[in-house]
Fold:
Amino acid sequence: MWFFKKKKEKTNLTVFASTIIRNVEGDEYSGYLYKINWDSGNILKKIPILSQNKETWNERGGNRGGRGVSIFKDRVYLATAVTIYIYDFELNLLGEITNDLFKGLHELFIVNDGIWVTCTLHDLILKVDFEGNTMFEWWGSNSKYLQTSLGFESRELNLDFSFPKENFAEHYDRYSKEERLHINTVWVDDNNVYILANRKNALIKIYPNEKIVFQDNNLMSPHNGILSIEGNFILNNTQKQKLHIYSKEGRFKRSINTKIYKEDLSSQFAKSGWQRGLNNYKKGKVLIGTSPATIFELDYNKGKLGKKIKLEEKTTHCIHGLTSCIISE
Structure:
């Protein structure tokens, strides 16, 4: 009798990342979605993200490129400024999700019955179902608690962008500067919903009750406030190129230098090191995005930088969204 050894199934850490290309002109693509084999370092696929809302572009990026990326079941969900696209793991486009309130989207968080969405331009958090129907909405600029605690007034919202055509870009730019919070992250844990308010350097619980978990003015342009596997809040101190760690109660624990390029202080447009994109892919380790479009590993318990994969060479080509999963072959 012959015995055949069963072929061992190969598994790979697969990373999905989105980018924005700043200062892109005309009909050029404004960013890409990547599928990367982290173990080999190979880019398995790279697809362009078509330009949208060109009238709102500015040198920083405007509404260009890809935003948050999330995996749910066997699908990849990619936010752009006004649409969520759905792909399979081979990056074939399967569909899209829209909602009239989708404006200036950033990060997503997907749960069994829907998608939590940052509608950044309106200081708005939405939860929509998988057809795009609104299930929940929270208007940050109207929060009396935050107005009192963080010292701002409510704003006049222009939900359909009804600006004069002859100077649309000027009015749009003014509207975006009126954001009170610049919400760039939403995170859900045990029915609690958290946001990161970039302009207030604050991580805030918005549901079921509102509470400022922490405000840290040592932050500069923070992005990606996520809850780690161990139960700590981790976020990118983007402009200072550091990773900050806080307890779940909001106590600052430590910061880690994550600078991999030469600039001491980064900026969105002119300098390398604009740190954005964060994925806690295993206990004690995260993947971080930066510019020029690069993904690198950090062991945050040891404070040790690890593997690095550079996707692009130009400083204006920046990582925005970042996620990962194990895919069997």
Notes: The chain has a mean pLDDT of 91. The longest helix spans residues 168-177. The chain has two helices and 24 strands.
